[in-house]
Amino acid sequence: MPIAQRESIPTSTTATKMRLLDVSGRLFAESGFDSVSLRLITENAEANLAAVNYHFGSKEELIAAVVEKLVGPVNQRRLALLRQINLDVSGAYQFIVEAFIDPVIEAASRGDEEDQRFCKLMSRCIASRDERITSLVLRQFPEVLEKFVDALRLVCPWISSDVAHMRIMFMAGAMAHSLFHYDKLVIISEGRCEISSLDSLRDELVQFISAGISADTSK
User: Fold this and answer.
1) In Å, how far from its chain's centre is CA 207?
2) Which of 19, 48, 112, 175 has CA atoms 20 to 30 A from the CA of 154?
3) In 3D, which of 30, 21, 26, 10 has the Cα closest to residue 61?
4) Other beta carbons within 10 Å of 11
5) Reduced to 3 states, what is the DSSP secondary structure of residue 3?
6) Which CATH topology does 64-213 take?
């Protein structure tokens, strides 16, 4: 039986690109960025190195495209929820917190393959000490940061721009650490603490962050 030829670039380039993205996302989520070679990606995607170079140019840009594919919809959901908030109502800062956190909680709760891949990949991005990976991930967040800072300053006018930026960073850190590592609390507490569901984790997290993000420390 003749060996099937790998797909060349001119044939169904869109399908090849999507296959490279899907396979890369799965492999990066399972094994990390450094452990996955372009050779492994192309073998699993039934493509060739020329296809990677054609569509992405380098492994770094392939990683960036994978992160954008997974993180982009979450960030768009965040911005959509933020636009729906009436910033004139009392306590609107809690709705801002919910708009930031809920899309990630939703992704973690649905349990489908794409969402689980998002959670695994984001966990690896957060744990990574590689500045290249960090810079690729950060590309996804300037608009989100700007919009959430602006909204927070509208509902909490006593907060300076610098403080608002820091508090959004604190929120992102608390959310990521809690969501991706909450299972370790059960181990550390030797069973004295049990988190029954992501919903209960979410509710406590929203209350905790809301209190801090709105605090008036100028008094």
Assistant:
1) 21
2) 175
3) 21
4) 9
5) coil
6) Tetracycline Repressor; domain 2 (1.10.357)
> Rounded to two decimals, what is the model's pTM?
0.82
pLDDT digits (tens, 9 = 90+) for 80-133: 999 999 999 999 999 999 999 999 888 877 766 776 777 778 777 776 777 888
CA 9/CA 5 separation, integer angstroms: 12
Q: Per CATH, which fold does 1-57 belong to?
A: Arc Repressor Mutant, subunit A (1.10.10)
Domain-wise residue ranges, the chain: 1-57, 64-213
Residue 118: predicted pLDDT: 75
pLDDT at 219: 66
What are the phi and psi torsion angles at 35 (to 5°)? -80, -15
Q: Which residue has the tokens 């996955």?
A: 36
Q: What is the pLDDT of residues 33-72, one digit of tens each?
A: 888 999 999 999 999 999 999 999 999 999 999 988 888 9
C-alpha to C-alpha distance for 214 and 170, rounded to whole angstroms: 12
First to last CA, the chain: 80
Is the CA virtual torsion 59, 65, 69, 72 positive or negative?
A: positive
Question: Do the Cβ atoms of 69 and 21 come closer than 8 Å?
Answer: yes
Closest CA to 134 of 58, 26, 33, 23: 33
Q: Is the Cβ–Cβ distance between 99 and 81 less than 8 Å?
A: yes
